[in-house]
Give the backbone structure.
Amino acid sequence: MNSWFETDTFAGCLALSLNLPLLVPLANMIPVDIDTERLQRSGYRDVPIDASWLRLPTTIRLFWFAFPTPIPDLTTTTDHSARALGHVTGAEAPPGFSMPRPGMTSVVIALIPVVTRVPQSLPLASSGQFGPLDAAVWAIADLVRAARLLDDMPPLPDVTVQSLPGQSIPVAHACVRDDTLIWNDEVWRHRLDGPMVEVTTYRDSPLAAVDQQRLLDSFADLRVRSPSYVLYDLLGRADAAMDAGQPENAVIGYAITCEYFITNLALALAWETANSSSDAAIEAAATALKPWAASVENLLERCSPIGEGRWNANDVTVAAWLTDVVHIRNRLVHRGENTTMHHSRWAREAALGLIEMVKRRLMSSTKFPKARAQFTGQLSVKRWSSNRRRTDHEQRLANRHAYIAQSESFREWRDRVYAEDPRD
């Protein structure tokens, strides 16, 4: 028996084969740990676990494949459109034509340890409970999010159970005999209702080995919600909304990205300045910052100890953020106004400008090395670090153990500050 499967805990293993609505450039087996701590950091934190299927902690395995997918030609749609146009203009409809386009889609096989011996009698997805289909899609979704963090990757959309194309999911089950998984010859189907989507091919070949490893590193940092990775995940989600032609979602996404960055940076500076996790230090920070009630502009001014110019509307970059992100977001949310793709492009430019300004000032500052490590990486060092200090910055980045420990320390400290919110 392979070490990943615990025969003392699980009665069998479930295999699901899922078609994704896009091609993700992965081609290897990826183990994904699922436990209650990670669930508490996810959108499933308030969803009870389906105990008829799952027991946590567990490890599931994802096998990634790419297959050609039929893309329907545009003949029928084009003919109907042309005929309708001819009806109004009097023009004769053009002859039918075909525009076949090849496509590729990712298919993921998920192996999920389960506690049941009679899986055919249970639904894969139960309303209001976290079941095997949720576990598989959650792991897949986090890997897609990690993939879009790579430098040359297009804005991949989020993957959810609801976004999967309608399909009949093949399901198989293995039982445990003599510490061995024995697969049943029977394959049954789970009908998943979903949208009819046109598969988007982003890459025609798997990532190189070095990029696969970078993706897995990003995946690990996303799952523990390291601040810099969460920042770029939020930015990628806003980019995906703009790529999908959803300007309102894009503008709100860029606003969330900036507010997350500013709020967490202000908290990180307070965390490093206090250098204490005592109850008194937590209470003092909560009283001073009140991050649950303070305006984002006020929190930005709290970052001024970093130095390097004004941290308010008198700075050109800050003024652009207030105009093209905050103001447009407020008009959208408070007045219900519509936005356009022009607004979303302006919001993106202003958001990137603010993020770049703050990262540059962090790299130039001689203070707050811990906070800087949470929000900057190799690219920031390459772009904005002085030659004299570059080696020191690179050594800090290379010490991944220290980075993870500091990241966990900051997140725990931040969560204790938010626990002081009287509304909780």
